[in-house]
């Protein structure tokens, strides 16, 4: 398939996902049955984000114009080890491999085993030739390159196992937010989306905030209480109850509002249903600290022009564009260099 044809068929998929598909609804219910974190609402959000941000034809064209993609290359087989923390989290990697003209050999996460294969079925219905580009397997073998996503622990095994071929190995990352105390109620509500969407399980979810010394947490806690229905998810509630009991038994200082627990901690990664905070004395020191921790931070949310580093507006951390590559590594450039 030529690049223009690959763009066209993905745009068809995007248009389809914006409509009604009863079989897709059934796949979503099957997914939820096997993984209670992936509610129908969360899966719908993920599919809508993919359709709107990744598969609109004008956005695909805008993204791809920055690369020289040769239609006459010899397709390479790229092994993909996909994560399963949020629905379809590996779709961007799959899309990159396809647009580069390579074949994707895909090891799915058992937490998200049904949505992506159905999307491949849809693509083959639009154009049977797409079947050449996607192969879901139980084990990777015969690959020319690998993109693997996992925890810090699994990344060490990935480095050993895939180290002899060109590879991208992704580790744990988190998003953070920097507050000044001047945020409006709307901005704090938007921050709540960054914290709670996908139950905080994504690498782009805010897991830690930096606040000025003497910060008044009351407006923030009130804004985050707007998302209190999240506690109705049994898995989330179990984590909240367990961690809340743990902090009380250990007499660890904390703040809680019934749906999230705030604790002072230097770690970037917080427990499920938790949010870490750290005080700062000046914004310049925060910017320096975040720059030093670049390898562990996926993105930073803050008001515009507050920091001297790149930031996103509140509410946008879980809305990456096609060119917002995970870990800051240009996946397309990697694939085009094979």
Low-confidence stretches: none
Number of strands: 11
Radius of gyration: 21 Å
Number of helical elements: 12
Structural class: alpha/beta
Side by side, the strands of the main sheet go 8-9-10-7-6-11
Helix content: 25-40%
What would the principal axes of the Cα set say about the shape?
A: globular
How far apart the termini lie comes to 18 Å
Assembly level: single chain
The fraction of residues in strands falls at 15-25%
Mean pLDDT reading: 96
Q: Largest beta sheet, briefly?
A: 6 strands, mixed
Element pattern in H and E = HHHHEHEHEEHEEHEHHEEEHEH
Written account of the structure:
With 338 residues, the protein is of the alpha/beta class. It is built from 12 helices and 11 strands. The strands form 2 sheets. Strands 8-9-10-7-6-11 form a 6-stranded mixed beta sheet, sandwiched between helices. Strands 3-2-1-4-5 form a 5-stranded parallel beta sheet, with helices on both faces. Helix 1 packs across helix 6 and helix 8 packs across helix 9 (218-224). The longest helix is centred in the last third of the chain and has 16 residues, at 234-249. The radius of gyration is 21 Å and the shape is globular. The model has no long low-confidence stretch (mean pLDDT 96).
